Amino acid sequence: MPRARNRVASRRRRKKVLNMAKGYWGGRSKIYTVAKHAVEKGMQYAYRDRRKRKQQFRRLWITRINAAARLNGTTYSQLMGGLRKADVALNRKALADLAMHEPDAFTRVVEQAQNT
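Now predict its structure.
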């Protein structure tokens, strides 16, 4: 009796990998073994960079807050220390948004941090 190989499942698995490799250059999108390695590596990068994106946004927010704080005569560290002492619970994302779109409101926040 011949060995059962379940070709349906193996074809589906290979097809899934090749579909994920669409758009890759050359054999990376056509040869299963090469495509499998490329897709696995791409998944590793995607996993890592989902976490990196959070770091990059935090750095961007800090840069924007620092630039706006210096326009108001203080530094980032002095501003954040003052906000902590004044019990102002604004995160960096909200502060950066204020600094970009509502400079008057950001100036009031800076004044509140400096008064403590």
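The chain has one domain: 7-114.
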